Structure formats: structure tokens, C-alpha cells
Amino acid sequence: MNKYLQQLVELSDLDKQIDGFTPRIQEVEKAYKSIEEECETIAVNVERLDEEVNDLKSQKSGTNAHIAEFSAKIKDVAKKSSSAKKRKRDKSARS
Prior knowledge:
Elements: H1 2-94
């Protein structure tokens, strides 16, 4: 009977140890869930920032196109102005 009692005590100790793992497991699961949520938040932020970068690249491209267009218009106006001044000088020189 003493042998069985000793085994029962050992089983009781093992049961206590197993029960001691439950809070640890819950802690680890909680930490894991927290880290997983943080990773999801970071992934969402990265996706949002990628979209913003793409939007800014698109805006930059559009702005550069406008700059090129306005630069061409300015050159055209400067050319016309120069031509008009030259005609005025020629006209006044003839008179």
C-alpha cells in the first residue's frame, strides 16, 4: 500500500506541475496574440504608406508634366515677345 501511496503523491505532484503550466500557457498565448495584433497593425500601416507613396509619385509625375507644359509655354511666349520686339525695332528703324 505504501508503494501506491507514494505513486499517488507523485501523481499529485505531477498534476500540480501540469496545473502550473496553464497560467504560463495563457500568458504566452496572450503575448502571442498581442504581438500578432501588432504585426497586423504594422502591415496595415505599411500598406497605407505604400498607397500614400504611390499617390505622391503620381502627383509628382503630374506636377512634372505641368512644369514641362508651362516651361514650353513660357519659352513660346518669350520667343513671340522677342519676335515682336525685333519687329518693333525693325519697324522703327524703317521709319
